[in-house]
Amino acid sequence: MRPRTPRLPPRRPRRSSKACPRSGPCRSRTFWTLTVAECLATSSLIGTQAHLVHWFTGRGVNGGTATYLVSLMAVAGMVGVLFSGSLTDRIRSHRVAAVLYTLPAISLALLLAAGSTLWMLGVGVVLMGCALTAVTLLLPYLVTRYFGLRASAEIFGISLACSMLSIGTGPTLIGIGFDTSGGYTLPISLAVAATTLSALLMFSLKPYTYAVVKPAPRDARRTHTVPAVTDTRLSGQEATP
What we know:
single chain; about 240 residues; mainly alpha; 10 helices
C-alpha cells in the first residue's frame, strides 16, 4: 500500500501592508472630510499667527502691545485644551466637535473687523488661541470615534502628515497674498472662507461609529477588592519570626 501523503492546510491569503489600514478607511468620505477640515483650519490659523505682529503694527497698534496680544493667544491655548476636552467628555456628540470648528472662522472674522480696537483684538486673539488647540487636539479623538482603536495610530499618522503639510504652506500663502494685494485684507478673508468651509465639512459628518464606553461606577469597583500584601523585602526590613 502506498503511504498517504498528508494534506496541507490551505494557505490563507496574506494581507498586503499598504499605507491605508485593512478596511480602507483612507478611501472613505469620513476620513477625507476630517483630514480636509483639519488642514483648512490649521493652515489658516497657523498662517495668520505667523503674520499677527506685522498685521497689527500695520494697523497702528504699538509693537509691544502686538507682542503682548500674541502672548495672550498662547495662554488662551492652554485654556482651550481644558475647555474642549471637558466639553467632549460631558457631551458625547459629534455636533460638539463641529461647534468647536466654528471658533477659527469666528476668531479670524473678529480680528478682520476689529481694526485697531484693542478689546476686539484681545477677544479675537483669545478665541484664536482656543480654536488652535481645540482643532489640533480633537483630531486623534475623532479618529478613534469614527474608525476605532484597531488602526487608529496609522490613520491618525496619515491625517497628521497632511495637516503638517498644510501648516507649512499656510504662512507662505498668506505672505503671497500680502505681496499680491498689498495688505492682509484679502488673504485673511480667504482664511475666513477656508475655516467656514472647514466647519461646514464637520457639520456634514454622521454620528460617531464607535460609542464612548462609560467607566464603571466607583461602588461597583469597590466590591471586588484584594487585600494588600506587604513585602518586607521591598522596604528593607527583615521579617520577624
